[in-house]
Amino acid sequence: MSFREQLQALLTRPKVRRSAEPSAALNFIEESRLVTVLIFITTVAAIVLISSVGITNDHLPVLPNQLATVRIVASAPFTYVSDERTQLAREQLRTRVPPVYRLEFDSLHRFEAALRGLFSDLAAYERTHPVKAPAVTDRQADLAAMVDAFNARGPYRASIEDVLTLLTTVPADLRAEYIEHGLAALQDIYQEGVHEVGFAHPEGGTVFQLVRPGGDIALRPVQSLEEALTYLRINLSAENVPRAVRLAFFRLLRHGLQPNLVFDRDATAQRQSEALRSVAPVSVSVVRGQAIIEPGTRVSAEQYEMLQAYRKFLRENHVTQRDEGLQLFGRILLVLAMVLASVFYVRLEDRETFQSNSRLGLLALVVILNLALVRAVYSLGALEFFARDVAWSSILPYVAPSALAPLVVAILIDAGSGIFMALLISIFTGAIYGNRLDVVVVTFLASMVAIFAGRDVRRRSRVVRAAGFGGLTVALFALLVGLADQFSVDILLRQMGAGLVSGVFTGIIVVGVLPVLEALFKRTTDITLLELTDFNHPLLRLMQLEAPGTYHHSLVVAQLAENAASAIGANPLLSRVCALFHDIGKTSKPGYFIENQRDQANPHDEQSPALSALIIKSHVKDGVDLARKHHLPRAIIDVIQQHHGTSLISYFYQRAKTRSRTGTASPFAPGLAPAVVEETTYRYDGPRPQFKESAIISLADGIEAASRNLRRVSPQHLGELIETIFRDRIADGQLDEAPLTFEEIAKIKSSFTFTLLNMLHSRVTNPPGDNPALQSHA
Known about the structure:
The protein is mostly helical and 778 residues long. It is 62% helix and 5% strand.
């Protein structure tokens, strides 16, 4: 094939290349301050609309005993039947119903039986032992047994002295009269009723409601135990009996006198029920402008009932409540303050994001979408299901996926921006739910936990786990707040479950939207980068098959770049992935690159230096085409374009200059005179490396190729080689646009030296005749 035919075949490509440079319109959108202002205005307007327009206190989840954060005022008059006030009236009436008592005679009957038994035993004993008093005294043992038997039949403390007095002093027939008279006195006392000493009447006084034997209830006075004892003593004193006998008989009968006034629970409950049936339901009239709930106070059961009645009235009468939260102007000021604070933070802490409209747009988009989701969850409170069931409506603040935007920003940009987004989202989530401080705290804390758990995440499953930890934080916080507010177990379990489920679903949503946002805003996460390190990627497989020398070269460059990036605090994973793909363009013409020629003839020997240089340079554009065809991230495309910068292809440039000086014409066009050698023909099209990882790969690419020509690998020789290449690149201006400091350049040199010395180490020489496979490495 002639030179002209080869040149025509090279220049007439069947496909049309897309420009590697962004269009003027894209540059304008990316860098224009006008676009930045539009993003700012759009963000402020969207947040104001989401967090204020249509937001009322009508659907705020409020629970009894919860600390109120807003003031709710009736926007229209209404009347409702108050169960709480009706119950209060019933309880007040119940306490005013006097208790009912009954008289209990069991203790009297037991004492009567015991006393009759004692005197019956004494009479029998007296008949069998008819002796005089002195003889009876000698038989106290027999009498003591009778007295003990009497005392054992109840709480009695009869003494043997009193029994001896009655036995020896009073004849049997007269004793029988005394017994009947005493028991009759006890019967009268019991019929009147006896209450304990110190017994407090509910209404004061000594008149009680007593149940008569017929079942009716009557008011009757009841005497105390002291009064009953006095009555008994006076009654016994009326008889013409000796004083000693009277006292002995009194001491014996007093044991039978016990309080017999007993509270009748059933009769009292019946009287209360009869009284409560007369209580009519209490109706409450609420006037327009009357406060239903005041901020800073615990919501009482009566306030909660009034609020529920008010909301029912609004639903049934289709009354729209006016905004009772922050006024629109105040909300605009709040949004402006928070967005301006975000701008100042990004301006101070992340200038790269501040100068990139695409990053600012990403921040604005995820914040707006996150707040829109929070607002959508809030709007669920208007549904009939949540409006009627307060237990379910109370879970809405914990269902809102408030960690969505912070987690996305932390993964796509950095953790600092994610933390500030968490604060922004938390403040407006709390504002939407009625300025609730607990919602602000729990959403911010959950976002912080999710960001911390998702730091340096490289697998999509870890994103779900990180968001799940955030949901667990919400659940634990809901438990603590619920215990403090004394919520029921049912509400606690629902709120905790809502927090856990919300965390998991937030993680799933983040995993789903990350690829979309990466493609839309040209961002690349470590998750995507790690997936690209799979050696079964189509482009890496193509390189393994078509250009194995280039593939091995890329592996070495990847190792060099990764270690150097770690040394200076750059992104090691990004450096490794970009290095793996930086030479994929060589797969189009692998034979024109020396690492793939092996023992084959060098095709450049038959080409002119200009054509060879053109072929060599074309691997950059071919690489960009392949990268775009396979939808590789923008960072990889940038490295493919920048890894040679505008460096000189010195071999073919010197070869062209030699031919120009000697006047040698092209071997394929002998009739043509030697042309003037233009240096631009032999330089790459650039651009020069624009970021640290690109500059590291550019240096590693040159050093790896040059190190193959070292005859002896030693720290000194390798150091001199690295120093020469660095010096030449700096002198040629290839690092002028890379943000590298002299300190970082020194660390990169040390890293390259260490890595290459370990890669290019020598091995122990095998003695003749030994099997090298059986020898250990040096």
